[in-house]
Specification:
- The protein is mainly alpha-helical and 115 residues long.
- It is flat and about 40 Å long.
Length: 115
């Protein structure tokens, strides 16, 4: 299990940054309503959710463990993606499964949303 103080500190700083950016989308109690702003707001909220989930895993003592297989996530992966929930092997398996299901629908190639 990887649970370094630097990872936790990075995640806490990122949470504060995202909360400030999300707060900037409020204007006198009403949200900015342009489509582009709504998209950016949704992305920021999703990033904040991921950071908060990572901090919860850190608090539980499960940060750095793959949620699928339970093995430690490579520290290099966590440096690049501090909110990663799966090791590379399990993430690749998940992505390949999504792509196979997508292709199986009607025998046509479908666009699949990747996160």
């Amino acid at each position: 299990m990887l649970s370094t103080d630097s990872s936790r500190q990075y995640l806490e700083n990122k949470r504060v940054e995202l909360q400030k950016r999300i707060g900037g989308f409020c204007n006198g109690g009403s949200f900015v309503t342009t489509f582009e702003s709504e998209c950016v707001f949704a992305v920021l909220k999703d990033q904040l959710r991921q950071v908060e989930n990572a901090l919860a895993r850190y608090k539980e003592g499960t940060y750095g463990l793959c949620q699928r297989c339970g093995k430690p996530i490579d520290p290099a992966r966590l440096r690049v993606l501090p909110c990663a929930t799966m090791c590379v092997r399990c993430k690749n398996h998940q992505e390949n499964s999504k792509n196979q299901r997508s292709f199986a629908k009607g025998g046509q190639v479908q666009l699949v949303e990747r996160k």
